[in-house]
Amino acid sequence: MNAIIFGAPGAGKGTYSTRMQNQLGVEVIAMGDIFRESVKQNTELGKKVKSYVERGALVPDDVVVEVLKDKLAKIPQGKGFLLDGFPRTISQANTLEKIAKIDVILQLDVSDQIIIERLTSRRICKNCGTVYNVRFLKPKADGICDKCGGQLYQRADDNEEVIKNRLQVYKTQTEPLIEYYHKRGVPFIVNVTKSIDQPPEPMVDYMMAELKKLGLA
Ligand code: ADP
Ligand code: ZN
Fold it and tell me: Of all atoms in ligand 1, which is nearest to the CA of residue 8?
């Protein structure tokens, strides 16, 4: 199965994809994670993308596409993938269309208000990337990952000013992809988050059940 997990920044793409990864037996490709890691390691890619990621602007398509192709090439034969953070523009989607068939879109629908509240209180494990929230999805011990004991940190782009920019970019450049994939007849599984304290597990169960109905899980 090849899928895209789609939604605004803070909609929960990373949270759900890490939780579904094992159940689905797919490879998750999370563009933002790849970029943040390369910035941290100060690699050639990191140097290219740093200023964009810090501002919440889109990394140029040619750079993103090269990373995607490289990651896809490493997936073992017969294993599917779940894309988190790609495509983010129509041009990226056009490129993807030439490389792979997409079976389903997992769409996360979350209001701006919830997004801003969530992102400003989000924390991430330095070691394993698990996402927490100091208000709504707390770790058992303050500042420490439940899963691996790693330290939790706040992403540099999770501040109000950059969040506003990321939302603006999402609305103008990325949201049009919903219509793009509807037009192509790709099935959607839509998940609406109605309240800020909604736990992820029931949503994961719902998406898994819908994937089974489609014969994809
Ligand atoms: P978000 O929480 O905003 O969805 P991500 O972790 O997916 O964040 O992405 C972080 C940043 O990485 C983006 O703001 C952007 O600068 C860059 N980025 C990630 N994916 C893409 C992409 N497909 N195209 C261009 N830039 C990207
Ligand atoms: Zn961890």
Answer: 4
Q: Is the CB of 86 under 6 A from ligand 1?
A: yes
For the chain, the domain total comes to 1
* pLDDT > 70 fraction of the chain, expressed in percent and rounded: 100
CATH of residue 145's domain is: 3.40.50.300
The verdict on the CB of residue 34 being under 6 Å from ligand 1 is no
3-state secondary structure of 192: strand
d(CA 31, ligand 1 centre) in Å: 6
Rounded to whole angstroms, the Cα distance separating 1 from 26 reads: 7
Q: Is the predicted pLDDT of residue 146 greater than 90, yes or no?
A: yes
Residue 32 Cβ inside 6 Å of ligand 1? The answer reads yes
Residue 198: what pLDDT? 87
Residue 207 lies in a domain: no
Q: Does residue 129 carry a pLDDT above 90?
A: no
